[in-house]
Amino acid sequence: DSVCVGNCQRMYDGEEHGRFMEKLEARIKNHDREIEKMCNFHFQGFVDSITELLKVRGEAQKLKTQVTDTNNKLQESGKELLFEMEELRKCRLQQRNIAATVDKLTLCLPVLEMYSKLRDQMKTKRHYPALKTMEHLEHTFLPRVNPFRFCTIMVHNIPRLRQEIKEVSMSGLKDFLECIRKHSAKIGETAMKQVSVIPLLCIIVCVVRKPVTIISRVSDTYVNPTVHKRLQT
């Protein structure tokens, strides 16, 4: 920088300003010619590039239009695809729900059948089988379906049903004992008749099994008139 400043100062001091300006003007013209040559050399390429760019612009516009149309068609097709996918998702969800429902029903049906069997046994007054069914229902079947509400209702009903069976059984027992008390005389008479038949049956059995022994006993009976009279009666 100090060298340039010194040269400029010497140029003005030596009155060479005009000469400097002439050389500077000549140098500028020389550069202008070189620039013009360079521009002329590259001008045709520039024009060709502009022409190609205009063509590309037209093609780009066509391509943009095609891309826009394709995008619109894709959007329309995508809407249908999305709708079908949503329907498919709903169908699969329904399928899973149906499969889960079938599994739960398969698990619940034996419980309901067992409970229905229990109610039928209670209606027909088969109390002992009803108690066995209730035990299986309470300890085997109901724990499998514990989360369901009907299971909770059944669990709450089991003590009431057991008490109902107990009351019905006690009532039947009381009626049976009362019936025995009313017909005790007739029952005793029938029992005495059955007991009186037993000695004769014993004699018949002994005849079949031990004929020699029974013949001797029969002879003793004819000798003993008391025994003979008892056998006749």
Task: Give the helix/strand layout.
Elements: H1 2-13, H2 17-123, H3 127-141, H4 149-182, H5 184-209, H6 211-223, H7 225-232
Arithmetic mean of pLDDT: 75
Poorly predicted parts:
207-233
Element-level helix/strand string: HHHHHHH
Q: In percent terms, what proportion of residues is strand?
A: under 5%
Query: Strand tally, please?
Result: 0
Basic shape: rod-shaped
Portion of residues in helices? over 70%
Kindly provide the radius of gyration, computed on alpha-carbon positions and rounded to a whole number of angstroms: 62 Å
Distinct helical segment count = 7
Please outline the major beta sheet: none
Structural category:
mainly alpha
Distance between the terminal alpha carbons, to the nearest Å?
A: 170 Å
Domain Exocyst complex component EXOC6/Sec15 N-terminal: 23-192
Organism: Callorhinchus milii
Coiled coil: 21-80
Protein name: Exocyst complex component 6B-like
Primary descriptors:
single chain, 233 residues, mainly alpha, 7 helices, rod-shaped, disordered C terminus
Describe the structure in your own words.
This protein is mainly alpha-helical and 233 residues long. Helix content is 92%, strand content 0%. The chain is built from seven helices and no strands. It has helices at 2-13, 17-123, 127-141, 149-182, 184-209, 211-223, 225-232. α2 (17-123) packs antiparallel against α3 (127-141), α3 (127-141) packs antiparallel against α4 (149-182) and α5 packs across α6 (211-223). The longest helix has 107 residues, at 17-123. The protein is rod-shaped. It starts with a helix and ends with a helix.
